[in-house]
Amino acid sequence: MIKFSLSKTHFQINEIAIQFPIEIAILEKILGDYRLKKNKHNQIYTWDTHGIIAFSKEGLKIENLLLDLNYGTYDFCSKQPFSGEFVFENQNLFELYKTNKKQLVKLFKGDDSGAFILNGISVWFNKENDKITAIDISAYEEKIKNPRLPVDKEFKQLESLWQEWIIEINKIVAADNDYYNLTDGISAEDLKEHFVLEHEITIPPTLQNFYKIQNVEYNAVTSAFQFLIRDWTYDLIPFEDIKEEWNAIQDLQFNEDDLPELVIDFEKIKTNNYANPKWIPFATGRNGDYLVYDTDPADKGKFGQIIELQNESWERNIATESLEELLKKEINNLKTGKTEHFDFITGKENQD
Description:
By secondary structure, this protein is an alpha+beta fold. Helix content is 21%, strand content 29%. The protein is built from nine helices and 25 strands. It has helices spanning 24-31, 93-99, 157-170, 188-194, 205-213, 242-250, 323-335, 343-346, 348-351, and strands at residues 3-6, 11-13, 16-17, 22-23, 35-38, 43-47, 52-56, 61-62, 64-68, 85-88, 91-92, 115-118, 121-128, 131-139, 182-184, 196-198, 201-202, 214-216, 226-229, 232-236, 263-264, 279-284, 290-294, 306-309, 315-320. It is elongated. The two termini are 44 Å apart.
C-alpha cells in the first residue's frame, strides 16, 4: 500500500523523502512503471494500480501529483482509484478534512473546497457535487498579505456596523460554511488597481472605506454576506469584481430609439437609459439585478442613495437613502429573526 506522509519537517512517499519539483526517476523507483501521455502543454504520468497521476510541464520534473479518487473518464485517469494512506501531521487526511475546514486555504478565485498548507506544500481537494474526486499536491508559495488600509475618520461608523453585521451572521452561518466568504479589507494596492472604473468614474469614498474594513471572496453560488430587499437577496460583490459588474451593466445600455419606458421616480433618480454610468454596483442578485450606490442623483435625490436596479421589470427603486441605512436594515432583519434568505446556505431549505 502506498503511504503519503506530510509534516512540518518532511514530505514522504513510502518513507522516502520527496521535494518539489520531483525527479521522475524517484517516483518510478517508489511506484514502479508508469503510463505516459504527452500533450501539447504537458506530460502526464499515470500509475494505474496505485491511482496516482503526475504532471510535468516540460517532461523534466514533476510539478503536481494527483491522487485519483474518482477524477473522471479522461484517458490519463488511473484504472484503479487511490486506496493508499495519507497522513497529514499524524492525522488521517480525510478525517482531518471533515473536522478542520477552518484551516483550509482557498487557492484561487471561486475555490469552493480549499487546501491544507504545510511545509511549503499545498494539498488541495478537487470536488464534484460535494464529493472529493481527487487530491492535488504541489509546492506552495506563501502570498504576502498587504496590510489593509486604515478607515478615514469620517467613515468610522462603518466599522461598528461591519462588526455588528458579522456578529449577527455568525449566529446563523458557521465560519467553515462553504458560503462564508469573509476576507480581509482591501490594501493600498487593491485600491489603486481597482477603484477607477472608467475615465472619471471611480468607486466613491464611502464604498472604498466600507471595503477597507472587510472584503469578501468570490463564490460562484452565493454569499453569507447579503442584503434582503423585500423578498430578494443581493450578495456583496468582492471589491476587485466591481468593475466587471459595472461593465456588465454598461453593456445593457440602449440606443435612444430602442429604450423601453422606464419605471422611475425621476425627481430623485437620474437616468435616461438602462442605468446611469455613475451608479456603482456593490451587491448582485445574480439574475441581472443589482444594488448600486448612486453618485449622480436627481435634484431631489440624495448622493449615496442605494438604488435597486431591476433587469426584467425595468424598475429603479430607492432601497435606502445610504449604505449605512442599508446595513442597519439588514442587521435588524437578522436580529428580529427574518433570516429565511439564509435557508439555502444553512441547509434548512433542503430540510423543509
